[in-house]
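Work package 3, deliverable 3.1, input record:
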Amino acid sequence: MRTLTYAQAIREAHAQMLELDARVFVIGQGLWSPWYAGASLEGLDREFGCARVVDTPVSENAVTGMAVGAALAGLRPIVFHPRMDFMLLAMDPIVNQAANWSYLFGGHGASCGDVPLVIRAVINRGGEQGAQHSQALHAMFMHVPGLKVVMPSTPADAKGLLMAAMADPGPVLYIDDRWLYAERGEVVAEPFTVTIGEAVVRRGGSDITLIGISWMAAECMRAAGILEREGIGAEVIDLRSLKPWDKEMVAASVSRTGRAVVADGGWRTAGASADIAAEIAERCFADLTAPVRRVTLPDAPAPANRAQEQAYYPGAEQIAAAARAVLTGGADGRTKRAAA
Amino acid sequence: MRLETEWLAERWETMTLIRRAEERIAEMVESGEVRCPCHLYIGQEAVAAGVCAALTAADTIWGGHRSHGHYLAKGGSLAGLFGEVLLKVTGCAGGRGGSMHLAAPEVGVPGTVPIVAGTIPLAAGAAFAYKLRGEDTVAVAFFGDGALEEGHVHESMNLAALYRLPLVLICENNLYASHLHWSERRVADNLDRAGEFHSVPGEQVDGNDVVAVHAAARSAVERARSGDGPTLIECRTFRWRGHVGASFDLDVGVERRGELVEWLPRDPVRRLADQLVERGVVDLAQREQAINARIDSAVEDARAAQQPAPHVERQEALCAR
């Protein structure tokens, strides 16, 4: 099968949907520029015209609200936020309007009240960009009833989840990460969807379950490679969807391995990892042989200095270390229930 | 002349329907029967009636927390309104929203929300959809004077002008945003010029004169339909009742009691009734009786209707679709 980069896969999903469905249009900042969206939107304006690929002024709130209104009027918008930090200016249309609308105003017939909207946000961490060009804010949005949140980590999922988001009758927040744009992988050429809410086991293992989100799923795979060389079999689950997230798959795996590390590129307190760890505690308590550990960003804004960035962002080494700590009872003296 | 008289009589019926329905809601608020927050429109009826008469059924209107009048003027049902303020399953939002969340998509009311100016970008987006599909449909945003103090209204005006969207912006300047008089919020009384910087033409009309409101709305709607973009109309009016609930809010503002004394004689419904009597219309009392009977019947039906079942799972399912 042919391979694509993650960014090319996103572009292909856009192009195929624009081709297949006259209701689809893309609106947001940087769509006519070569450097906001990388290869992920390259040339779409020339291919499909500026009426359907609309570069906008810096008006996040109204542009996102317009996308909500266009969705309510029967179009299928993708509203693009090239830096998720700026999307905070659009909290009202996302949280108050899009997320609530079908709950409030559904019930007037078939698709009435549906908000078939994709909100695409990009995380741009690193690169000495500092605290307001780098934030991973997915946990804020998975908190909100009525919103779906997906975060693909592979080129195939980048395409399949975007096409699923576009086909969904409700608002879906699609978050991609610039650190994944060059990742290469096999992608089916035809249009296809990945079911929202379904995680995937990336590799099997019986000693510990590593649950990763977005680029941390890729880091979990690298961590599993490190652990394998030490004789530890790590199962890696790429969550792919955060709302809803695949509680059954995670619980089944953790019940089998008895141990879990949750790796998320967001902050620790009330982060996505907190919800996952809490759910594991509720569902798998009797099967756990050690406390769940989390690998997250520290509760601090992103630094700009490169050395500080390297200390701030966890990766495969930190995930592997957390896995070892779970397996050995940890340096902090917590012991395995099984050994007690 | 007779056609014009009948047209005016229809506007009077719409305005009287709004007035009487809201007076009934005010009574139900005072008696405690209606408990959800109700923001009454009494005194402003000419705006909704005049604007909606310039629209087709396909055109959409987008409103805020004070939208009973817009909903009824566009053709929303009394059953849906009373069902909703009593939070019954027969309400136009299934009893999930209350007074601030009205919808009648079948007649062009997709939904009203209380976030001030929250639906203005949505209206622009609907207009964007109509234009992209090559339809001649128009979206109308109703909002109060307070909404023009929200930043995204200015973003929306710029975008609507830039893309020449079929959007009409109706600012109902009732002089108050919640409890604050305009002079406590702004230096200059110049809302009709709020669009100038964005190349959105503006006009001020007497919002208590249904004929003036309608004439301005009709020009703006024609301009929107012909592809020339958005227009802002400031309808100068006054809300008799308080920001929320049935009271007259005499404890706030600069000199609200004096303002009320000044504005009550400008009653838009009475003004139109006087014109109709002058034109020889003799059956206003009968028409009003029929309106009151419709309201009585809607209230009785809403009282008899079921409460939504307190099912958490169903609520979760509704927003997980």
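DSSP finds eleven helices and 14 strands in chain A.
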